[in-house]
Amino acid sequence: MSIVSVLAALIVFAVSYPQWYETRPDALIVRSGITTRRIPYEQLAAVRQPVGNKPLNRVQIDYGIGNFLIAPQDPQALMDDIASRAPHLSRQGTDLVSATAASRTT
User: What's the pLDDT tens digit per position in 50-86?
Assistant: First the structure.
C-alpha cells in the first residue's frame, strides 16, 4: 500500500510543480509540472485575487472550462499585463472581469 501512496504523491507533484506562467501577445501560458495550458485571452472570464488572499499573493484565473490558481511574484503586474491584452475584461475593484461575469454579480 505504501508504494501506491508514494506513486500517487509523485504523480501529483509531477503535474503540479514547478509552476510558471508567461503572458504572450495572444495567450496566457501556464506550466504546472509536466502539463502546459495555453489560454487565449478571449477565453478569460475573470482574473481575481481570492478574498482573504493578500498574504499568499495568489491569483485565480477563470476561463472557458474552469479555473485555477497561480502564485505570481507580482500579482498586480500580472493583472496589469492581462488587462492590456484582454480588452473584454474590465476592472472591478482589484479584479478583472468580463461584462457577463460582472452582470452575474450585480
Answer: 876 566 688 999 998 889 888 888 888 999 999 999 9
Distance between CA atoms of residues 46 and 69, nearest Å: 12
Q: Residue type for 100, please?
A: T
Q: What is the pTM of this model?
A: 0.74
Give me the long-range contacts of 62-70 (CB less than 8 A, separation at least 24).
Answer: 62/101, 63/39, 64/39, 68/30, 68/37, 70/19, 70/21, 70/30
3-state secondary structure of 56: helix
- Choose between 38 and 16: higher pLDDT: 38
CB 20 within 8 A of CB 28: no
CATH 2.60.40 fits 2-105, yes or no: no
Q: Is a pLDDT exceeding 60 seen at residue 105?
A: no
